[in-house]
Request: fold
Amino acid sequence: MNFFIRTKKRLSRYLNAFFKKRQSRIGIYGPPNAGKTTLSNRIVRDWTGDALGPVSEIPHETRRARRKEGITISNQNGNRVTIDIVDTPGVTTKIDYQEFIEYGMEKDEAVKRAREATEGVAEAMHWLREDIDGVIYMLDSTLDPFTQVNIMLVGIIESRNLPVIIVANKIDLPDASASAIRKAFPQHPVIPVSGLEGNNMEELYEKMLEHFG
Reply:
């Protein structure tokens, strides 16, 4: 009798696991220093009280993808979505260790960081091609959005038919221009925010409910 009870419990766990819907993995992508980890921390902190990773003014502070599971976003209308946030390394076409030396690093440390950053870019691209269900694409709204990296990444996202929200970050800075990003990518929703100050996060959360729910 105990054998049949144990078998029934194991079968029940197997069926629950098999039919359970996997939570959507939402990747936060963009070039280095766009504010990806700052925004990731803001989202995670707002909904869980936790954080995801450290930030720095030095490029490529994030050199490995970081994932926070089970973040439930909701609104006053009762709409809700539970997602996993994946904070990815900044994607660029060139990583030069000399750039890190300019921030005061010794050569050995700079070379090590450049190697890790290069590996991180490869990891980010693997996630994008294989394991991501939706994208928040981060751009620094003080910079020109028409770059090779941005056009390439948005093209890959579109080729996979992934839902994407473009975030124009750093609107707290005086030379920010969300309109330039809207002109660059008119085919996608653009939400201006300050991940650092928390400006306009409610609009982003509403768009996330609409796009990723």
Observations:
- The first strand starts at residue 24 and ends at 29.
- The first helix runs from residue 2 to 19.
- The radius of gyration is 19 Å.
